[in-house]
Design a protein that fits this description.
Blueprint (H helix, E strand, L loop, with lengths): L1 H21 L1 H14 L14 H7 L32 H10 L5 E2 L2 E2 L6 H13 L5 H10 L4 H11 L4 H42 L3 H24 L4 H7 L5 H9 L3 H5 L5 E4 L7 E4 L1 H8 L5 H12 L2 H12 L6
Antiparallel strand pairs: 1-2, 3-4
Helix pairs in contact: 1-8, 1-14, 1-15, 4-5, 5-6, 5-8, 6-7, 7-8, 8-14
Length: 332
């Protein structure tokens, strides 16, 4: 169980590292905002893929949908949206970023905003409407003039609110919150596939055979029980213990075995292993030949499959199970 927890944490850590390195969350958000506020690009392509397959095909988002970062505070008044002549201008996306750039910090010259609270989005829309002569009506006309897909959504919210400003703000907030939930569903489906791929890679790189691990654990416990029997029964039980260490001096054999529990032995078959001697510095060993021989042994593959399925449950599942079995209490 502990080994599955550690490997699941490794998979989660690798996934989070890729997400942060490629700024996936921020790109998901701004790809959606560009599609919603300004529509497709100049070639008529949507910024946000509609399926998980499309997401993988476009990663790591060769066309970065994020606006350029600005270290200036938001302008006192929102600028007016120019009537664009081409779809490459992204006028509404830039105006929205101007209203929320105060919560931004740079990531290689691009915005790092990965979460836009619905309340902040609604307020930004109200600020943009305040710059128009006719308020919300003027903003809707501007959206229609720039051919923004947002026009239809806000038009429906405005009509439902019966042209009441407070109800309109609440309606925009509710609508945007539901849109973020839909976007989160696509993101979670993408993450599940990434975790599945990383699970395969970790299982095979560590050649973690779940069935063999269970057998090793039982043998490890049996060996420790025999050592306890020697201590309790005296010299008469020494002959059985000596037979298990017939190729070497029993005392160093026992010491070495007890210092390497089953959990440590399992990770000795990874393509790269680390040994920490009693004296001296830790050393790294390349196990390429042993790893390949183990990987190509078909009898290990049922165990690999068991390990892979266990990793799909995720680190939270194994942590919760370990906590329940050991009685560890969580923070409240």
């Amino acid at each position: 169980m502990l080994s599955f927890l550690l490997l699941s944490l490794l998979v989660s850590g690798l996934n989070e590292a890729f997400v942060r390195l490629l700024a996936i969350r921020s790109k998901f958000l701004w790809a959606y905002l560009r599609d919603t506020l300004d529509g497709s690009d100049a070639e008529g392509r949507a910024w946000l893929p509609a399926s998980v397959r499309g997401v993988f095909a476009s990663l790591p988002f060769v066309r970065d949908p994020r606006p350029k970062h600005s270290d200036q505070p938001a302008p006192a008044e929102a600028a007016e949206a120019p009537v664009r002549e081409t779809k490459a201008e992204d006028a509404m996306t830039n105006l929205l970023y101007q209203r929320v750039q105060e919560i931004d910090h740079p990531t290689r010259g691009r915005t790092s905003i990965a979460n836009l609270p619905p309340g902040r989005f609604a307020v930004a829309m109200m600020e943009m409407a305040a710059t128009e002569k006719d308020g919300v009506e003027g903003l809707l006309e501007k959206l229609k003039a720039v051919r923004s897909p947002l026009y239809g959504h806000l038009k429906g919210v405005w009509e439902t609110a019966q042209r009441d400003m407070d109800r309109f703000r609440q309606g925009v907030e509710t609508w945007f919150d539901s849109e973020m939930q839909r976007l989160s569903m696509l993101y979670r489906r993408y993450v599940k596939w990434v975790v599945a791929v990383l699970g395969v890679a970790v299982t095979l790189l560590f050649t973690m055979d779940g069935l063999e691990y269970g057998k090793t654990l039982l043998r490890d416990n049996a060996f420790r029980a025999s050592v306890t029997a020697v201590a309790e029964a005296g010299p008469d039980a020494y002959s059985e213990l000596k037979a298990s260490c017939a190729q070497s001096n029993p005392v160093p054999c026992i010491t070495d075995t007890l210092s390497q529990p089953a959990l440590v032995k399992v990770f000795d078959h990874a393509i790269v292993s680390v040994s920490i001697p009693a004296e001296g510095d830790p050393s790294i060993h390349w196990n390429g030949a042993l790893w390949w021989d183990r990987l190509t042994t078909l009898s290990h593959w049922p165990g690999y499959l068991l390990t892979y399925v266990a990793l799909l449950f995720g680190a939270p599942f194994w942590w919760d199970l370990l906590r329940r079995l050991t009685g560890i209490r969580g923070h409240r």
